[in-house]
Task: inverse folding
């Protein structure tokens, strides 16, 4: 098959888009499919260079970034409609294929893709609520869902977690939301973990990810004698490795491998930002069998509960997170055993290759 990845969020190295698109492209290429990515219209030089180095064919295409902000506080629905119209126009530059795959489908993209008949079958994968990144998007999602139900269209909507499928249904009427295998594979990990020693922070550190509390957590963990690894793919932190037990990492092409070298991962995020949003870091922890500390009452916490890989904090404070670390240390051998069992359960149903299996079964004409 010829599979084009349509991803207006592919406009920077930080965040999950480049990592996700690259793993999808590699999984599809291994099966003999032709793959190209159609990303944001003006990629920075570091992204273009990383894509070229990784062998990912990148076409700068979309003028509306996935997380595009509004220019004013007024007339947001009109401005959002303009986002939809621009995205629809930009689709004229995408040639036909056996499948157009939106790896991080938003309300704007769904509305644009259903605005007129396309020659190519389409698949959209959802990671977060139609209200994100803009609440007004919920109405556009609902209208697009009605269009899909009223007129036969070659568009399949799916979500990378069954709970997200349930969440989407209230926006989507009777439109089918397909449960998709989550394309996080984790990394092999057979290290002997009998004691908590090495603690990691991974991903694009930013406000909703608790970036303001990170320096204090790092200092406290070092004072307790732990080794600390901090990956800051977006360059948000000013802290540099000035301690023999502190390692700082920039963007890395295989953060799961770095994550697997840790005994515990801290994800000190604000629960409010993730009530209806997935987390790639938490998914990689589960897939690898590394215990992870997460805030209670959010979607990543639900995932960690389901696979037995989580320790939870219940307030966005330094003391609350450190209390969870202490609990992890006290329970560590049993926690590792639970996390490894959870990893086996995760890999039985998820991963990039299983997603490709699903896509081939649904869209490929091959026997």
Result:
């Amino acid at each position: 098959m010829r599979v084009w990845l349509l991803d207006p969020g592919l406009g920077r190295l930080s965040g999950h888009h480049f990592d996700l698109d690259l793993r999808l492209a590699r999984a599809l290429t291994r099966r003999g499919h032709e793959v190209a990515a159609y990303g944001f219209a003006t990629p920075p030089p570091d992204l273009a260079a990383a894509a070229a180095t990784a062998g990912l064919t990148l076409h700068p295409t979309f003028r509306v970034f996935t997380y595009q902000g509004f220019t004013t506080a007024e007339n947001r629905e009109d401005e959002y409609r303009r986002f939809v119209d621009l995205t629809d126009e930009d689709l004229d530059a995408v040639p036909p294929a056996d499948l157009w795959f939106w790896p991080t489908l938003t309300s704007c993209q769904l509305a644009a893709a259903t605005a007129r008949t396309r020659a190519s079958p389409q698949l959209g994968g959802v990671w977060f609520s139609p209200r994100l990144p803009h609440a007004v998007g919920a109405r556009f999602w609902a209208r697009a869902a009605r269009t899909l139900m009223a007129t036969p269209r070659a568009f399949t909507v799916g979500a990378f977690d069954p709970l997200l499928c349930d969440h989407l249904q209230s926006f989507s009427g009777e439109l089918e939301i397909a449960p998709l295998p989550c394309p996080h594979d984790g990394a092999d990990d057979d290290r002997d973990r009998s004691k908590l020693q090495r603690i990691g922070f991974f991903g694009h550190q930013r406000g909703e990810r608790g970036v303001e509390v990170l320096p204090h957590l790092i200092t406290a963990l070092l004072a307790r004698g732990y080794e600390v690894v901090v990956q800051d793919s977006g360059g948000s932190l000013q802290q540099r490795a000035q301690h023999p037990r502190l390692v700082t990492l920039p963007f890395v092409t295989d953060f799961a491998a770095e994550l697997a070298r840790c005994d515990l991962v801290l994800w000190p995020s604000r629960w409010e930002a993730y009530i209806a949003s997935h987390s790639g870091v938490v998914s990689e922890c589960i897939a690898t069998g590394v215990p992870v500390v997460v805030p209670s009452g959010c979607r990543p916490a639900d995932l960690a509960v389901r696979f037995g890989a989580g320790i939870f904090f219940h307030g966005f404070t330094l003391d609350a997170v450190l209390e969870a670390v202490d609990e992890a240390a006290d329970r560590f051998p049993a926690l590792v055993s639970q996390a490894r069992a959870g990893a086996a359960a995760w890999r039985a149903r998820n991963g990039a290759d299983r997603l490709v299996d699903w896509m081939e079964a649904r869209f490929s004409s091959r026997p």
About this structure: Residues 198-347 form a domain with the Rossmann fold fold (CATH 3.40.50.2000).
